[in-house]
Amino acid sequence: xxxxxxxxxxxxxxLVVVEALxxxxxxxxxxxxxxxxxxxxxxxxxxxxxxxxxxxxAVAVLGYxxxxxxxxxxxxxxxxxxxxxxxxxDDLAYYAFHRAHHRVRVLxxxxxxxxxxxxFNLSTALRQSWTPMTTLPFWxxxxxxxxxxxxxxxxxxxxxxxxxxxxxxxVGKLWKPVEWVFNTPSHHRVHHGSNxxxxxxxxxxxxxxxxxxxxxxxxxxxxxRYGLTKNIDTYNPFRVAFHEYAAAWRDVRxxxxxxxxxxYLLGPxxxxxxxxxxxxxxxxx
Length: 285
Fold this sequence. Notes:
mainly alpha; 0% strand
């Protein structure tokens, strides 16, 4: 099965071009805009993620299908309540996935790709990981709920398409009720910020409600600084894709303590053996 998001790629590319032209003809000194090398890197990362992701989806389908056959009840796609359940279950799964990938270093090593640009525009949405294998466990429970695998894949694609439009500085804050319930460009700018006040905030996919309920919400206030707390300063796609895995491996090899090795892999990014010397949550080795 080809993920539905693949069919949206031409529209994504067209909208990137449109947004880039908008900066060319209506620049804003307070916005980062586009830089050719940065955009090319984001596009390359997006293309690579699709090359890796398509065969991996086949593995995911097998996992979903296996658990779906074991589900006590198999829900009907003809029921509107199945779709309602899917919407909320998928969004909660995304929140759990996203939060874990910011708080566990070995998971962050893949997700850091998406945060590695110091700019924030629609091309940043395409800057995706080449190691999608860690996503599967967070959606397997949906199959056990009895949701058909094809519905899970479809809703994942819908969520990703929605999130594409969050990566822009060209949209300010929206109507307050929308900002309260849904993830918006304003909320997602916060998520991509390296400011201390913005670290590890606003993990939501389509909804921002999980962040409000779990205490991880932060409204946009001070000017957002995009990127990492320690930027990697490279446009090399392979370094972008794997630099944090290499850094984690160096840290693991630097100690003979298995407890410290576990901390370097399973602790938050920036973890050190001395808890009082730990770096900010999104710092890198």
